[in-house]
Design goal:
The protein has 7 helices and 19 strands. The chain is an alpha+beta fold. The chain is elongated.
Length: about 425
């Protein structure tokens, strides 16, 4: 195939690079913000009343539908693709969440096609073409060309660089928009692109493509002098076989909508034509969007709500089981010692009363510390035989505990809200 020299658009300057700030400090600040945010959320969650089924249902429903909407408009959000010549892109999203594929051509070269198949077509077609580019690169400018290449493709670049000095320029092959942006930000850093080369004089570069993706071939000049670059690209591209589609549409004539079956292995292939002589740019811009399968999101949100409600139910049931356990276990050491201590206290109090009578002193109505710790902290008359739910503190008799629940509903020890009081039975 004869080489055809294409007219070129002027190079563009590199973006302004701001001074770098310490990455460790940035990551540390971000980690501290995330940690503090999570801590505040955890503290808020611990103080929330999880026993209210209505509140739990409302919170679970809101969270589940928020996740569903975020997935619907975030996981498969619309995107604008910049495609080069002879592109062949397989579009096969998850049919569980995507109901249709929509493609609209938004500018530049026309001629893209959308094909639909009952199953994934084979990647067995090939095409080879050559591109010749001759550009002048002023200081701090760059120029790139985009190509979508599938696995098994190959790029061969022959270059000729001329300038007044002995400086070199950079030639890169960047995979995707992220690598291109990193190269534009740090054009002198070699680990930001798929292939990073310093070129001067004459030479050649060959790269095999192992992953289907968007690739940018770019040159950049960071020197003060002007460079003249002559590139001869020979590209061998692997294409999907589009010989037997059951659906085809031209996006330049209007929006193309390709429906996806819920059961099946149908796929879509988006193609662009080859290079058109005389055009400054052969780039084709298409807008790709996905129609969500709302039924799947609704069912997924319902399942998430059910799981969260079940988790909340079993968590509360387990917590109530622990809270229902009395502070003094029946039949334990405390129940065996309490009668003995009570008898001893009674005997001691009787002897004290006799001694007081003999000495002519009035008996002390206030019980000592060893005796009073077994009695209600409210009335100091009945023994402690109840505990509060949910805190579990055992400080009052059953009558005083019920009066507290009916009036203030607050534990006198921890000031936590109480729901009810339960009596302790000893055998």
């Amino acid at each position: 195939m004869a080489e055809v020299e294409q007219p070129e658009s002027p190079p563009r300057p590199f973006p302004t690079r701001s001074p770098e700030f310490p990455r460790d400090q940035f990551h540390g600040d971000r980690f501290s913000r995330n940690y503090n945010g999570e801590s505040s959320l955890n503290n808020g969650a611990s103080t929330a009343n999880a026993d209210d089924p209505k509140s739990c249902f409302i919170a679970s429903t809101a969270f589940s539908f928020f996740v569903a909407i975020t997935m619907a408009f975030g996981l498969y959000s619309p995107e604008t693709l910049r495609l080069g010549p002879n592109a062949s892109i397989l579009i096969q999203p998850n049919r569980l969440f995507v109901e249709s594929i929509e493609v609209v051509e938004v500018g530049a070269a026309k001629g893209s096609m959308l094909f639909g198949f009952y199953k994934t077509p084979p990647l067995d077609a090939t095409t080879t073409w050559q591109e010749t580019h001759k550009i002048s690169l002023p200081s701090s400018t760059h120029k790139e060309w985009v190509h979508y290449l599938n696995e098994g493709s190959q790029i061969n670049i022959s270059y000729s660089v001329s300038s007044w000095g002995l400086s070199s320029i950079g030639l890169v092959i960047a995979e995707g928009n992220a690598e291109l942006a990193e190269w534009l930000k740090e054009p002198s850093y070699p680990d930001t692109t798929f292939s990073w080369n310093i070129i001067h004089g004459n030479g050649s570069i060959q790269k095999d493509i192992l992953k289907s993706s968007m690739y940018y071939i770019g040159v950049g000049n960071l020197n003060p002098e002007i460079f003249t670059v002559h590139l001869n690209m020979s590209i061998k591209a692997s294409l999907y076989n589009t010989a037997e589609p059951y659906y085809h549409c031209r996006p330049a004539e209007g929006k193309c909508t390709f429906p996806l079956f819920f059961m099946g292995a149908n796929a879509a292939v988006l193609t662009t034509p080859g290079r058109v002589p005389g055009l400054v740019s052969d780039n084709c811009y298409v807008k790709l969007s996905y129609g969500p399968r709302w039924m799947a999101y609704v069912v997924g949100a319902g399942g998430m709500i059910l799981l969260m409600l079940l988790f909340n139910y079993f968590t509360n049931h387990f917590r109530r089981t622990e809270q229902d356990m009395p502070c003094d276990q029946p039949g334990g050491i405390g129940s065996e010692r309490n009668p003995l201590l009570s008898q001893k206290d009674d005997n001691t109090s009787g002897s004290d009363d006799e001694d007081d009578a003999q000495t002519g002193l009035e008996p002390n109505p206030v019980k000592d510390d060893e005796n009073s710790r077994h009695f209600c902290a409210i009335c100091f008359e009945a023994p402690k035989d109840s505990f509060f739910i949910p805190c579990g503190h055992c400080v009052a008799c059953f009558g005083c505990a019920n009066r507290i629940v009916e009036t203030t509903a607050t534990c006198p020890i921890c000031r936590r809200k109480t729901k009810k009081a339960k009596k302790i039975y000893t055998v």
